[in-house]
Each structure stands twice: as structure tokens, then as C-alpha cells.
UniProtKB/TrEMBL annotation:
Name of the protein this chain belongs to: Arabinogalactan endo-beta-1,4-galactanase
Record organism: Marseilla massiliensis
Any one of the GO BP annotations: pectin catabolic process
Pfam families named in the record: Glyco_hydro_53
EC number: 3.2.1.89
GO MF entry, a single one: glucosidase activity
Length: 363
């Protein structure tokens, strides 16, 4: 009789660990694809509803980005998927919550893409005195969250900024963790955003997101600067083509666990190429193939190795695929050139990597 009881106890322990982990993706473009009549299919070719398919794969959380005034974004950025204003996010967030997923909100604090190479000041704050910018960030963050809460889309996790390794709202708060320039303003902007999150969504976890997973010295310097900031989770982007091998990520995760033992880590963005078809930026079919082949099997190899590595790190509590919903079956939306989603751009079929991805919360 003791063996069955032991097995039950082990099963309960595995379930408890799985429940603590979040698995999902940034599905910010899903409504746009659905409006374009994209057909999503399972691996056998049967038409499926994406959210239902993700749930069957064990996903329990979804991420959505929010721009300030995306209607003011450059035309080429709009063609790349910049359209998520508060109305769009309110509708998608409510849908995510109704479907039973946790909801991660990603504030970009820009009218367009915010990443390490660009953090454009929103047009509405152009000309606002530096000393008033934290108040502007607080008011905007608070109003956005109140709108989401009122629509039944209260976020469970909130990113205050997107890939803000080099600051935000350039040029005013452009900085580096190795440079004191603009650090005071940058810290004040983050503090204002975090305070609004606590005031409106006190139960939500606040994430500070960078993309230097392959550079421990930079990562350490950045988060050391935030010693007094009120936040909960270290969020990292990790892409093998830009952030070195999985072993380098592993070393960073080990170092984070030692230096910041009270801060869980989430990989809030990851993805890998399965093709360079239609890729306007690729210089050859094998570009970025240093660690994994640019193929369906190569994408699956990456996913399998990443999941196996992350499961060895107790401080990693979340894993999110960026743009899993990419689907060229509806025509030429966004040019079908990114080729890092979890559905084949040619057929709309679920790719094999999706099954390895689910292993993050499985046994």
C-alpha cells in the first residue's frame, strides 16, 4: 500500500511545480490574423481554434503588447504589426481571461516598437519637461490599467517597459547600466510605472524586462541599479541567434539565482527560425545557423534543448514564445517573412516544436 501512496505524493508534487510555472506566448497579432481569415491547423491538418489548441498544449498564460498611440507609428512598422492600442488590448485581454489564461501586459511606452535599438518617446509626451515625465508615465499607466480592469481584463503580470536594457523614452531616459547619465530619470520613470501597477492591480506581478541574457556583466549591472525598485520578476528575452548558446543562458540563470535569490526569472520572449523564406533581412538560407539549422527540425532541436535546460533552474518560473500565431495561410499579411512562429507559414499547420515547448510544465 505504501508504493501507491508514494506515487500519489510524487504526482501531487509534480502538479504543484507545474502549476507554479507559466507557459505561453505573445499573441498580440492573433485578432488581426483571425480578421484576415487565417486558418490554423493542428499537426494533422485539421482546422483548430488557436486558443483551444494552445490550451491543449498546456499553455496557461498569454502576453500582449500595448503601444501608446500606434496610429502614429511609421507605415512600415504598422505593416510589421504595430496596432495594439488600448481598445485592441482591452478586447484581447478580456478574451484571454475568459478563456482561463493568465494575462501578461507588456507596456512599450512608445507609439511603436521599443527594443534595445530604439525606444522612441511617444508623441503625446514630446516637449513635456523632464521633471514631469514620471507623472505622465504614472497617469498613463494607471488609466490603461483601469480601462483593462473595467473590461474584465485585469493583468496578472505587467511588464513596465519592453527590452529596456538601454533605458526608455529616448533621448530623455536613454542610458546604460555602466553610465550614470539619465539614470535618475530612468529610475523615476520605472518607479512611477510600478507604483501605478501597485495602485490599480496590487495582486499583479511586476516584471522588468531586458534582452542581455547572453551577457552576465551587463545583466548584473542593470539589475544592480534597481536595488530599491519595487518589482517582482526579472524578465529576459532569449533568442539563440542573438544571445549565444543555451549554455551561456544557463550560466546567466545560475548567476541570477545567486545574486537575486528573491527574484524569479521568466523568459518572456523566445523563438527560433524554421525557415528564411521571404525573409527580407536574411543574407543567406543559413544565416543564424551557428547553433541550430534553419529548418523545422532545427527549431525543434532548439526548443527541446531550451526546455530541458530551463527545467534545471528552479528560479525560472515562466516561458513565453514570441509571435507563435504567425500564419501565412491567409495571404501576404506582414509579408510572411519572420518564420519564427509555431505554425507553418505555408500551410498553417502546427509545427513539431510546439510539442517540445509544452515540456516546460510537463513531467
Amino acid at each position: 500500500m505504501r508504493k501507491p501512496l508514494l506515487l500519489l505524493a510524487l504526482a501531487a508534487s509534480v502538479c504543484a511545480v507545474a502549476q507554479q510555472r507559466l507557459l505561453g506566448g505573445d499573441i498580440s497579432m492573433l485578432p488581426s490574423y483571425e480578421e484576415s481569415k487565417a486558418v490554423y491547423r493542428d499537426s494533422e491538418g485539421k482546422a483548430v481554434k488557436p486558443l483551444e489548441m494552445f490550451s491543449q498544449l498546456g499553455w496557461n498564460a498569454m502576453r500582449v503588447r500595448l503601444f501608446v498611440d500606434p496610429g502614429l507609428a511609421p507605415a512600415d512598422h504598422k505593416d510589421e504589426g504595430v496596432c495594439q492600442d488600448i481598445g485592441y488590448v482591452r478586447r484581447l485581454g478580456a478574451r484571454i481571461k475568459r478563456a482561463g489564461f493568465r494575462f501578461m501586459l507588456d507596456f512599450h511606452y512608445s507609439d511603436t516598437w521599443a527594443d534595445p535599438g530604439k525606444q522612441f518617446m511617444p508623441a503625446r509626451w514630446s516637449g513635456v519637461p523632464r521633471t514631469a515625465l514620471p507623472d505622465s508615465v504614472y497617469a498613463y499607466t494607471r488609466a490603461s490599467l483601469e480601462a483593462l480592469v473595467g473590461a474584465g481584463a485585469a493583468p496578472d503580470l505587467i511588464q513596465v517597459g519592453n527590452e529596456i536594457s538601454n533605458g526608455m523614452m529616448w533621448p530623455e531616459a536613454k542610458t546604460s547600466p555602466f553610465d550614470d547619465a539619465n539614470q535618475q530619470l530612468f529610475g523615476s520613470l520605472l518607479a512611477a510605472g510600478c507604483r501605478a501597477c501597485r495602485d490599480v492591480c496590487p495582486e499583479a506581478k511586476i516584471i522588468i524586462h531586458t534582452e542581455k541574457a547572453g551577457d552576465w556583466a551587463f545583466t548584473k549591472a542593470f539589475y544592480d541599479r534597481l536595488a530599491t525598485l519595487d518589482y517582482d520578476v526579472i524578465g529576459l528575452s532569449y533568442y539563440p541567434m542573438w544571445h549565444k548558446a543555451v549554455g551561456v543562458l544557463s550560466a546567466t540563470l545560475d548567476s541570477l539565482a545567486v545574486r537575486y535569490p528573491d527574484k524569479p526569472v521568466m523568459i518572456v520572449e523566445t523563438a527560433a527560425y524554421y525557415s528564411h523564406a521571404n525573409d527580407r533581412w536574411a543574407t543567406s538560407p543559413d544565416q543564424y545557423a551557428e547553433f541550430y539549422p534553419i529548418s523545422i527540425d532545427g527549431q525543434r532541436m532548439f526548443t527541446r534543448e531550451l526546455v530541458a535546460e530551463l527545467r534545471r533552474h528552479a528560479n525560472v518560473t515562466g516561458l513565453f514564445w514570441w509571435f507563435p500565431e504567425e500564419n501565412g495561410s491567409c495571404g501576404s499579411m506582414m509579408g510572411n517573412w519572420i518564420n519564427r512562429g509555431l505554425f507553418d507559414n505555408r500551410t498553417g499547420r502546427l509545427l513539431p516544436a510546439a510539442y517540445d515547448f509544452m515540456g516546460f510544465i510537463g513531467e
